[in-house]
Amino acid sequence: MVFMYIPGIKDGLDLKILNMMSIGQLLRWILSTPVQFLIGRRFYMGAYKALRHGSANMDVLIALGTNAAYFYSVYSVLRAATSPNFEGTDFFETSSMLISFILLGKYLEVLAKGKTSEAIAKLMNLAPETAILLTLDSEGNIMSEKEIDSRLIQKSDVLKIIPGAKVASDGFVIWGQSHVNESMITGEARPVAKRKGDKVIGGTVNENGVLHIRATRVGSECALSQIVRLVESAQMAKAPVQKVADRISKYFVPLVIVLSFGTWLTWFLAGKFGAYPKSWIPSSMDSFQLALQFGISVMVIACPCALGLATPTAVMVGTGVGASQGVLIKGGQALESAHKVNCIVFDKTGTLTVGKPVVVSTRLLKNMVLRDFYELVAATEVNSEHPLAKATVEYAKKIRGDEENPTWPEARDFTSITGHGVKATVRNREVIIGNKSLMSKYHIVVPLEAEEMLAEIEEMAQTGILVSVDQELMGAIAISDPLKPGAQEVISILQSMKVRSVMVTGDNWGTANSIAKQVGIETVVAEAKPEQKAERVKEFQALGYTVAMVGDGINDSPALVAADVGMAIGAGTDIAIEAADIVLMKSNLEDVITAIDLSRKTFSRIRLNYVWALGYNLLGIPIAAGALFPGAGFRLPPWIAGAAMAASSVSVVCCSLLLRYYRRPKKLDTFEIREITIG
């Protein structure tokens, strides 16, 4: 095309070699054929598959448009070769440039999409390549250490993590103390102190001390692999809004084919019957060729590929950004539901509160040494797995001088009464620890003084535990689960976002109301069993709310599944994380706001993409059909239409990529970082 306008070369290209066929025409035919059939082969394949399944897609439009230009040009060249006076024009450059521009658009699109999945690549790179394996003897002494490929680590292997090294697999510390930077997994900026018994996550960085860890989850089971799988499946999953685009495309393509054929026919008949002056026809064409160019331009410019990219690109970028901020969103469905959320149901323990109960006060009703009292309590409670039991044992250790591994008196006939407390015989004395109903069950008199104490404890959002020894009430222990920092601010920000907050908990009404009052939640449901939590969620849905449930325990999983969006606190149980749609890796409540805000921003971007893609087609089709030609003499050659179509796809992808610069709401940056001090 360029050579045609260079004097000298132009004369050479115009030389006739067979009747009216020139060297230029033959060269263009030879050069465009591999582009049409080899480079453009993917469009033929795509069109064939689509038509075989009874649908028409973008490939059908491109195949039709380029074939029309190419085969008309072949006809024109062959006719010139067989006729002494036929001067035809070919459009070989149209089909070649169309295919080239569309593939360039696809290439830019793939480059952009590659950027959207950078989140996965970054996560994959977190895993260290090697690890130091320790061999221990029966007494736990180190016999040898050797460097191995981290893919060879097996469950229960003991690994040495030196300062500055990455933790090779999920596990728990068996020796040593250090601080571990977990920001790459949880988004939490401050290093986390680790000592014997603490869990560590593979891929995190050990900062200052040597740790020996025992591997618990390796390979595909580890937290890092699960996160990668979550992000991958999230980016592959279709958002329901994508179905709208699929439905539009289904009817859009046949409509475009009809429109382009109608455009060609209208212009052809108008030229045939002299409906417009001959001066409108460019010197190198006749009325048929002009009509054909208009028809091809319409077919090409209307390709709905921008429409098809509108949702998946935004979802990919949105989920990737979420992962980098410590908010794992499991796909388009979760994103779509989260942006509509107008009611959030919070669990109390571990969600609004820290989830680690601590003893705040002890009140004795009889004369007894506090150390002896806690000796009996700890001996009984050490056999229980309940968090409140663990809190009392920890406190008993402090009373005894904070021994590492204290030995408690033997507890015989230990019985755990689910939901009420425990009972055992310690030093031949019957010890019963639990709530008021447990005392009533064993006919232990609860004096008025104890009743008042319990009421006072519950008013202060604490849990009261009664202790009886040999059928006599000895005292009460007040246990509190401190509020998470920022819980109050999160609830108030949610109110400003017009999101209703509700608290549903299995705890007693006194504690529940007190916590709700502290954080500013008006609607409270207490003493709810797991299935009742799910029922409450369904009740709010029946009132027309789009409900999100935020929880952390196994008892929250039915409600997490029942809610429109389930959000699991990352420090919670595996079952809760599995049941949820969104996982808050940092266990920070403010990430609830980040998740909702990010989904709203992503959705506004998807809408913007749709407006852009559809608006572009509605504007482009009339121009391509020649609406401006009669008045302004402006027409859109097919190759420019192809370039414009490619540009629309790239612009939609770029619009989605702007989401990469997402920043969480400014209100969250002003949060005071408050430490939780536990006495």
From TrEMBL:
<dbReference type="InterPro" id="IPR036412">
    <property type="entry name" value="HAD-like_sf"/>
</dbReference>
<dbReference type="InterPro" id="IPR027256">
    <property type="entry name" value="P-typ_ATPase_IB"/>
</dbReference>
<dbReference type="InterPro" id="IPR023298">
    <property type="entry name" value="ATPase_P-typ_TM_dom_sf"/>
</dbReference>
<dbReference type="InterPro" id="IPR018303">
    <property type="entry name" value="ATPase_P-typ_P_site"/>
</dbReference>
<dbReference type="InterPro" id="IPR001757">
    <property type="entry name" value="P_typ_ATPase"/>
</dbReference>
<dbReference type="Pfam" id="PF00122">
    <property type="entry name" value="E1-E2_ATPase"/>
</dbReference>
<dbReference type="GO" id="GO:0019829">
    <property type="term" value="F:ATPase-coupled monoatomic cation transmembrane transporter activity"/>
</dbReference>
<keyword id="KW-0812">Transmembrane</keyword>
<dbReference type="InterPro" id="IPR008250">
    <property type="entry name" value="ATPase_P-typ_transduc_dom_A_sf"/>
</dbReference>
<dbReference type="GO" id="GO:0005524">
    <property type="term" value="F:ATP binding"/>
</dbReference>
<keyword id="KW-1133">Transmembrane helix</keyword>
<keyword id="KW-0406">Ion transport</keyword>
<feature type="transmembrane region" description="Helical">
    <location>
        <begin position="290"/>
        <end position="310"/>
    </location>
</feature>
<dbReference type="GO" id="GO:0006825">
    <property type="term" value="P:copper ion transport"/>
</dbReference>
<keyword id="KW-0547">Nucleotide-binding</keyword>
<feature type="transmembrane region" description="Helical">
    <location>
        <begin position="20"/>
        <end position="39"/>
    </location>
</feature>
<keyword id="KW-0813">Transport</keyword>
<dbReference type="GO" id="GO:0046872">
    <property type="term" value="F:metal ion binding"/>
</dbReference>
<keyword id="KW-0677">Repeat</keyword>
<keyword id="KW-1278">Translocase</keyword>
<feature type="transmembrane region" description="Helical">
    <location>
        <begin position="90"/>
        <end position="108"/>
    </location>
</feature>
<feature type="transmembrane region" description="Helical">
    <location>
        <begin position="639"/>
        <end position="659"/>
    </location>
</feature>
<feature type="transmembrane region" description="Helical">
    <location>
        <begin position="610"/>
        <end position="633"/>
    </location>
</feature>
<keyword id="KW-0187">Copper transport</keyword>
<comment type="similarity">
    <text>Belongs to the cation transport ATPase (P-type) (TC 3.A.3) family. Type IB subfamily.</text>
</comment>
<keyword id="KW-0479">Metal-binding</keyword>
<feature type="domain" description="P-type ATPase A">
    <location>
        <begin position="144"/>
        <end position="232"/>
    </location>
</feature>
<keyword id="KW-0067">ATP-binding</keyword>
<keyword id="KW-0472">Membrane</keyword>
<dbReference type="InterPro" id="IPR044492">
    <property type="entry name" value="P_typ_ATPase_HD_dom"/>
</dbReference>
<feature type="transmembrane region" description="Helical">
    <location>
        <begin position="251"/>
        <end position="270"/>
    </location>
</feature>
<keyword id="KW-0186">Copper</keyword>
<protein>
    <recommendedName>
        <fullName>P-type ATPase A domain-containing protein</fullName>
    </recommendedName>
</protein>
<dbReference type="Pfam" id="PF00702">
    <property type="entry name" value="Hydrolase"/>
</dbReference>
<dbReference type="GO" id="GO:0016020">
    <property type="term" value="C:membrane"/>
</dbReference>
<dbReference type="InterPro" id="IPR023299">
    <property type="entry name" value="ATPase_P-typ_cyto_dom_N"/>
</dbReference>
<dbReference type="InterPro" id="IPR023214">
    <property type="entry name" value="HAD_sf"/>
</dbReference>
<dbReference type="GO" id="GO:0016887">
    <property type="term" value="F:ATP hydrolysis activity"/>
</dbReference>
<dbReference type="InterPro" id="IPR059000">
    <property type="entry name" value="ATPase_P-type_domA"/>
</dbReference>
<feature type="transmembrane region" description="Helical">
    <location>
        <begin position="60"/>
        <end position="78"/>
    </location>
</feature>
